[in-house]
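[[Per-residue structure]]
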Amino acid sequence: MLFPKGGWEIDESIQEAALRETIEEAGVTGIVECELLGEWNFKSRAHNTDYQGYMFPLLVQDQLAEWPEKNVRSRKWMSVAEARKVCQHWWMKEALDRLVMRLTSQQLHGKEDSVGTCSLS
């Protein structure tokens, strides 16, 4: 299991890149939160290169029937516990843990419906 990831273009913000990658790789669209879950350094096996990744939460609003990488990737919905078990990378597990902590904190403070959204043009 992998989270959508990739680079961003010169003419887009990092949040716009996150949304584009999610549409391309997972076929979902929604609201990207402005506040990062975190930044991680990881090594690409395919390119033997070090990268810095930025992880944003996405409030999914729509699942697309067709998406650019549908023939190479599949989409599967699962619980956080299931996702954590099948995560291939430590930094993805850490991102899930941070998301759970953030959502739990929001619930404790009565902010379940508040999402710090970014203005994507």
